[in-house]
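Reopening this one. Same input as before:
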Amino acid sequence: MNRDDPEGAIAAAARSCSNWGRWGEDDRLGTLNHLTPDKRRQGAALVRRGDSFSLSLPFDMNGPQKGWRRRTNPVHTMLDTGTDAAAGLQDFPHGIGGADDVITMPLQCCTQWDGLGHIFDHGRAWNGRDAATTVTSQGDLVTGIEHMAAHVAGRAVLLDVGRVVGGGELPDGFAITEAHLVTTAETHGVAVGRGDVVLVRTGQLARAKRDGWGDYAGGPAPGLSFTTAEWLHRSEIAAIATDTWGFEVRPNEFAEAFQPLHQVVIPHIGLLVGEMWDLEALAEDCARDGVHEFWLSAAPLPITGAVGSPVNPIAVK
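Same output, byte for byte:
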């Protein structure tokens, strides 16, 4: 990999890893096509104890966002309260009262999925579509994340690279290679293959929760190396999520680049990418019982035309 030529490396990886046309010209699901009913049955059979783990951060003003690209933390506002009810301001009969609320937030400010309309390569969106006519001011007119809402449930595996390779946490700037992923899977005794949802724990979120957000949102971070594009394509996984802000290693591995792995995996592979997932409690449980595969339900909100979605992933063991 020529670290001075991100343009060339991205172009080569895009050619090598392209899934354009694989599932037809009208495809809206990308690699979620790998997550079949048989794969869901396999995932459901993994439930042994019935213990569940939420993999989401709290959606509140104490989140990691600092305003980059107008991304703010969620703002939660009450519309009706118990105070209103007690004061008789709600004008309901026979003593009934209630509370209502509203939340205002960017769809990618916290635990979330990147949809297929989120990233383009030289003006091309997933499956080779023209980005200008695919995602407009009206939203993603073709691959809006609502099309994925019924599909993201099945077998998932946790690759705790932070624990296996880093002794707990990987340092910022650590590039996770295919060798690291394979070694971690072998250490856990778990296979990774077609239709799986892969969760990669780096430990960075544990550090941020302990020491403060700092530059978590957009700053240096451990993450996947650009060189993992071939593995992500070849393994035929359905989706991948990490405990970091941006999925791939930061600073990126080229002299001048911005999220080059995104530029390959989303518009060319059609891969569903999750970020800012809280894997800590799940990782502790996996370390205790030695089982790193489980049932996962992680449906995006069916927000028409959205290019990303908040999610509360639930892992069940």
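So the earlier flakiness isn't reproducible anymore. For the record, DSSP finds ten helices and 15 strands in the chain.
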